């Protein structure tokens, strides 16, 4: 699908989810720890996109971006003012979504990231011109199980893609390099990788839970003349900070470029 619809206005519980076609993307499957036995959970399952639209209030559109026009054209005449259409399609703008749907449709653009699968995602959404604050609140209440859910202007969606969608891969690269450093120094690979991943996890949790600025936490680890400041100096010499900032910039620019291409494509 289109992935899933929820009769959320009556009951946001997972058993009220209905699926257009039962092709949940991985991140959605983990929202409520839903196992593949959807029917056993009392979830209505259908292969018809139209049937799902007619029985739902909140509709998640999770097809590949180039299929969004096809699917929205299919469901468009069944979309009414009770529906909230939520798109996760990368690069498909609110303007494009609103153009493909009936006038005054309530549309929200949402950008999740991979750690939603372990309920530690970072999600940013932006409301279309007819989506009210309470529509955003409803979305938050449905998705807070995925992780951090924030709202912002549409211009931030591409930045979110750079810092968080792609940022996940940047962190993996760093974790891999940490482990390889340990292997170089003589630690067995499996142990090095598990210690590196735990280090990234622990550092991330402490950063989030303490609410402290990363520079403050970093300085707390630095004993004068100690090991950490020597290592940090080496990282600065390698330009880690500058190249990370440039990586976020490149990924954001690429998201913007793909968005422009997708808007041009949907107008054809
Ligand atoms: N994966 C991520 O981490 C992530 C993050 C942010 C945003 N997104 C966005 O999420 C969307 C899905 O990405 P994905 O990687 O999850 O793709 P995917 O695995 O290919 O999932 C897309 C699903 O849509 C189904 N589908 C195709 N045509 C359909 C139709 N006409 N009606 C109903 N369902 C249809 C497909 O089913 P069949 O296989 O049966 O055709 C498939 O299950 C994309 O727009 C992407 O930009 C993904």
UniProtKB/TrEMBL annotation:
Gene Ontology molecular function:
pyrroline-5-carboxylate reductase activity
Q: Name one GO biological process term.
A: L-proline biosynthetic process
Pfam families according to UniProt: F420_oxidored, P5CR_dimer
Which residues are noted in the entry as NADPH-binding? 49
What reaction gets catalysed by this protein?
L-proline + NADP(+) = (S)-1-pyrroline-5-carboxylate + NADPH + 2 H(+); L-proline + NAD(+) = (S)-1-pyrroline-5-carboxylate + NADH + 2 H(+)
At which positions is NADP(+) bound? 62-65
Ranges of residues in domain Pyrroline-5-carboxylate reductase catalytic N-terminal: 36-91
- For this protein, what is the EC number? 1.5.1.2
Location of the Pyrroline-5-carboxylate reductase dimerisation domain: 154-258
Q: Which domain of life is it from?
A: Eukaryota
PROSITE patterns for this protein: P5CR (PS00521)
Which keywords does UniProt give here? Amino-acid biosynthesis, NADP, Oxidoreductase, Proline biosynthesis
Give the main EC class: oxidoreductase
Q: In which pathway does it act?
A: Amino-acid biosynthesis; L-proline biosynthesis; L-proline from L-glutamate 5-semialdehyde: step 1/1
Q: Is the keyword Oxidoreductase assigned to this protein?
A: yes
Q: Which HAMAP family match?
A: P5C_reductase
Instruction: Give the function comment from the record.
Output: Oxidoreductase that catalyzes the last step in proline biosynthesis, which corresponds to the reduction of pyrroline-5-carboxylate (P5C) to L-proline using NAD(P)H. Proline is synthesized from either glutamate or ornithine; both are converted to P5C, and then to proline via pyrroline-5-carboxylate reductases (PYCRs). PYCR3 is exclusively linked to the biosynthesis of proline from ornithine.
Q: How does it assemble?
A: Homodecamer; composed of 5 homodimers.
> Which NCBIfam families does the record associate with it?
proC (TIGR00112)
Q: What is the similarity comment for this entry?
A: Belongs to the pyrroline-5-carboxylate reductase family.
User: What is the protein name stated in its UniProt record?
Assistant: Pyrroline-5-carboxylate reductase
Q: Which organism is it from?
A: Acanthochromis polyacanthus (spiny chromis)
